[in-house]
Amino acid sequence: MEIKIMKSFKILLAAAGSAAAMAGLASPAHSQADPYLGQITSYAFDFCPQGWAPAAGQILSVSQYTALFSLYGATYGGDGVTTFALPNLSGRHAAGAGQGPGLDPVMRGQSFGQTSVSLTIDQMPAHNHSFHASSQAPDSPDPEGGSYATYPPQSVAYAEAGLSDVALNPAVIPPAGTGAPIPLRQPYLAMSWCVAMQGLYPSRPD
To answer: What pLDDT sits at residue 163?
Structure first.
């Protein structure tokens, strides 16, 4: 009787494992596996699980987190003697360290980029502003909304550009635009980035 019960129990376990595999579920042993100490993972919920901390640049004590400090050093902040910092991914994207083709080199722990930029004249593409005039005779004493006219009518009033050209007062063609910053952020989705504060110490490659 006991043997039959054990066989039935094993069959039930096998069936449950198959059902979990078919449903795409991880086994309890796999889902509870220890992370690597210091690894960063994103979560869709609004908190970090037990044993994890937000990747928000917190300053930590070297003496309290010796193992984690041996991996991070002062790469992300702190004085590197008594304190060090966790990576700060609050409102930031992560980028791969190194140098991609045609890109500037990026060091691990380096923060770069900005959310918006105000263009200067030197950054604007080369372009021209047209100045229009009329070959017709003037017909209004009010300059608002009007155009330069030719007076007397049909007279020779214009010449080819030459060395004797002088600039008009800047108020004749006033500047346009407000100088408002241009947003630079790509489309993104905010999630909770968390650091494993405990786990397996990662072995370095040979």
So the answer is: 67
